[in-house]
Amino acid sequence: MKCEHSTPQDDLARARATRSPLRKLYYWTLHWAATPYALPALVVLSFAESSFFPVPPDVLLIALCFCNPRRWFSLAAWCTAASVVGGLLGYFIGWGLWGTVGLPIVQMYHGEAVVETVRAWYENYGFFGVLIAAVTPIPYKVFTIASGMMSFDLTQFVLASVLGRATRFFLVAGLIRLFGARIKPFMERHFELAASALVVLAI
Predict the structure, then answer these.
(1) By C-alpha distance, which of 10, 152, 25, 31 is closest to 87?
(2) Residue 152: is it exposed, middle or buried by C-beta count within 10 angstroms (0-12/13-18/19+)?
(3) Of 23, 58, 138, 200, which residue has the fewest beta carbons closer than 10 angstroms?
(4) What is the DSSP letter of 20?
(5) Mean pLDDT, range 174-202, rounded to an integer
(6) Rounded to the nearest 10 degrees, what angle do helices 57-67 and 154-179 cross at?
(7) Cα angle for residues 112, 160, 109 (degrees, 5° grid)
(8) From CA 147, how far away is CA 88, in angstroms rounded?
(9) How many Cα neighbours within 13 Å face the side chain of 58?
């Protein structure tokens, strides 16, 4: 995937030069966006983030959409599909490996309170509670593992994951496609705020 904004070496150099962890992540993802491995990196990141990996796929998705805004739809589709498949891995970790794998992952992200919140939403609202959990900016990996641990209906879990993940990723990518280069300077200067704002707008 061709990206005209910079070279991978430039982005890695900027990542080393900044002190902000999130900005380091931004430039690191731009490095992948400017390489031939951009799409595989997005797929792997989206899959892994759904069950254990700490880096959210939104950052790489945003970077890739800046590089090639005409591909926003396919990028969002790949991101959604990989995230949902990765969510199934998280579900089965919670279902079959809660004590040995699932609980330590939840504790690593301090997600115990989130697990109880997801439980309450599911008990009170059923499918719509699962959908809310899938769309909101709670750690998706905690949601998937908690869903398996609580034996949520698998069909409802998959449907909620597809709807929730698609809503988030397609709207984030669509906003980049719509505004394009006009919002890139703001993203460069205020990336932390802009990334959060895009997710809020998607929700």
Answers:
(1) 152
(2) buried
(3) 200
(4) -
(5) 68
(6) 40
(7) 20
(8) 10
(9) 28
Tokens of 172: 């984030």
Structure confidence at residue 175 (pLDDT): 82
pTM: 0.80
| pLDDT-based confidence at residue 192 (cuts at 50, 70, 90) | low
Q: Are 180 and 69 in contact (CB under 8 A)?
A: yes
What are the tens digits of pLDDT across the range 68-82? 888 999 999 999 999
> Which residues are CB-contacts of 37 (< 8 A; sequence separation ≥ 6)?
none
- 177's tokens: 């496609």
Token look-up 């993203």 returns 187
Cα 128 to Cα 39, 102, 160, 161, distances in angstroms: 32, 24, 8, 11
Distance between CA 175 and CA 184 in Å, rounded?
12
